[in-house]
Design a protein that fits this description.
Low-confidence stretches: none
Amino acid sequence: MKKLLIASALLAALPLGAYAADGEWKGSGELGFAASRGNSKSENLNAKLNFSMEDDTWKDNFYLTALRSKGEVTTAEIQNGQLVNVKKYDLTSNRYEAGASLGYKLDERSYVVGALRYENDDFSPFDYQAVLSVGYGYTAIKNERTELSFEIGPGYKQYKPRVAPPAISDSESEAVGRGLIGFKHQLTETTRFEDTFLVEAGADNTFMQNDAGLVVSMNKTLALKLGYQIRHNSDVAPGIKKTDQLMTTNLVYNF
């Protein structure tokens, strides 16, 4: 029920933000798929949908992401009283995330921002994480080629740890400090580098995520994007890795 309420709040924020803003909304969709057959068998799908708008008063953003992959994995099972390794074709990644930020400009560079982020990941240290925050944003650089902005502020986080071996665990919550750095630079007429660094620091766990991407435009609508993502949780259960990495090559559709 709590997960449903969080997801519903994100969806409700989209029309409210669109109603408040008078600027032109821009959107993009990313999609990447890979599959192998023969000596090995695997499938990987990742997708992202993003909407953004900025005018003299508002600076808003909404996004949805999904990652799902299957592959051959080896697990240990007891058969006829003996421990044997068994190969299975099973899920190796299953994650989706939704987020929204509404920024109200105080002047040309400064703004106040409210942000909401929710993720559900079957292969992370947490069953889910949800963070609601408010803060102050500042655009340090903004010209035809480069944009650099910072956001910082307090927030509230609710999450459910995934324990190993699997067991029932309760949801937990804590106060966090949220920080975000957004950077974009137009390298050439058709090539752009972009990087977003997010940190949600609390007493029990600090979550950090960095998304770097190189975007090469083929025309006004289509582009190719090479992405590299690092995700890190400082406090995890024994047997669970703190850091995950993901490399993607996606087709981007701008609308």
